[in-house]
Amino acid sequence: MATVAELKAVLKDTLEKRGALAQIKARIRAEVFNALDDQSEPRPALSRENLLINELIREYLQYNKYKYTASVLTAESGQPEVPLDREFLAKELNVVEDASAKSVLKMQGFCFPESGQPEVPLDREFLAKELNVVEDASAKSV
């Protein structure tokens, strides 16, 4: 008969192999965050630029099935629970969707070749220019 320690080890190993253990840990972190989140503390107003950036991040998280991370982003950022319409988001970000890759938005100028590395430098100034975002001096620290 197996000991409790052996059963724990087998259960942990099985959950890890199925990817469930990471999901359980992420869910616990999200629930702890939600329990500790102080709803009485007012959040800063969500700017248009941050709304769009957060939505792009949420799309990335959902595409990669990081649903608990996405739920924390939504709760912490004040992003609306309902995602923005994809066509609206694509238009606002000057994005062209490839018909064969409708599951993920592809930005013009942001391509990742076989090497997995961007062909263009993804520095702050480049991103601000590509996304038509004007940075003020107070935003430089972000």
Automatic annotation (TrEMBL):
Domain FGFR1 oncogene partner (FOP) N-terminal dimerisation residue range list: 49-104
Keywords: Cell projection, Cilium biogenesis/degradation, Cytoplasm, Cytoskeleton
Cellular localisation: Cytoplasm, Cytoskeleton, Cilium basal body; Cytoplasm, Cytoskeleton, Microtubule organizing center, Centrosome, Centriolar satellite; Cytoplasmic granule
InterPro entries: FOP_dimerisation-dom_N (IPR018993), LisH (IPR006594)
Any one GO biological process: microtubule anchoring
GO CC annotation: centriolar satellite; ciliary basal body; motile cilium
Main location: cytoplasm
Cytoplasm recorded as keyword: yes
Pfam families linked to this entry: FOP_dimer
Gene3D superfamilies documented for this protein: 1.20.960.40
This protein's record includes keyword RNA-binding: no
Entry function: Involved in the biogenesis of cilia. Required for the recruitment of PLK1 to centrosomes and S phase progression.
Family note: Belongs to the CEP43 family.
PANTHER family: CENTROSOMAL PROTEIN 20-RELATED, FGFR1 ONCOGENE PARTNER/LISH DOMAIN-CONTAINING PROTEIN
Protein name, UniProt field: Centrosomal protein 20
